[in-house]
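Methods — Computational structure assignment.
A single polypeptide chain was analysed. Its primary sequence is given first, followed by the predicted tertiary structure written as structure tokens.
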Amino acid sequence: MDSDNTRKQIVILGSTGSIGTQALEVISEHPEQFEAYALTANNRVDLLIEQARRFMPDTVVIANEAHYPRLKEALRDLPIKVYAGAAALEQVAGAGPVDVVLTAMVGYSGLKPTIRALQAGKDIALANKETMVVAGEIINGLALKHHAAILPVDSEHSAVFQCLEPGNPIEKIILTASGGPFRTYSEEALRFVTKEQALRHPNWQMGAKITIDSASMMNKGFEVIEAKWLFGVSPEQIEVVVHPQSIVHSMVQFRDGSVKAQLGLPDMKLPILYAFSYPRRLKTAYPRIDFPKVASLSFEHPDLHKFRNLALAYEAMNRGGNMPCVLNAANEVAVSAFLSDAVGFVAMSDLIEYTMSKADFIATPSYEDYVCSDAQAREIARSYLTTL
């Protein structure tokens, strides 16, 4: 904590991404409540410099060490510690004064810093869903062992979290999905989707990786796996429904048949703020829902034939072990290939399915097994690309 022992000290892992920049907006809107203790980025050094000069954190870290000289020189007139590399990311995540670590890094890279933060007993504001997808059992075990809270930042999981009732078991979690930009496309039309089309989400402003995952519904598949670990439910207790308006962020059904839903306008600052301020709710000037203008809320079943990634995620979750780790690694390769025009939109699912069929299965993986599975799956996925 800082000297007056009132403001929460926040580390933002991935401060230059979509979630990270919105988290800094939340901090700037509530300066009496929160302070940015450390900011980190991978490559966007110019924005990191700008953020550091504005928010004056104790520490900044650039993961790509090639950018260290520029970062160090740009901040040399300020009393800010400057580091580079993966080891520095892990160290700052477990730093002594830190209260909350926001894991807003993209993909598998968020796993090790999250583990380090939990080992240090830090509460996690979890925006990096891949951490739970890849190693949910390990993450839950560390949180329990070190008495650290995992506070979901994804709008869907934050909604479920807000609907929970202590002492009343969950009968079913209902995760809502917008359906993305291709909800009404035919299977044939999906084959001709371009990356420019896929990057235009109808309701949310997000980074490229998560936007493509949303368009392919892999993002929803990851959220299903994440929900299993966050809320201790079985795969059969998680249902996905398509809700194009993105007003109902998710729901919880209890054993008496009652359903609770959390509603709000599509704005990631709300779940970020709730994770930072939990269990309190802080006053905001954010827009409120005008229900007559909403007009209608609609729900439909997802089409698992058109959006095979969601079906593949359920398959990985049901198989368990290291298979979600394989799923994630293959998807990261697939999305990167799609964004570089090396594979088509539908073919991403082909690549992922192929990788899952060829990767070694490990029923009870250790952390080292996850590292090996991730590497093997990426190798298999990249070899598949060479056959196209």
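Note: The chain has a mean pLDDT of 94.
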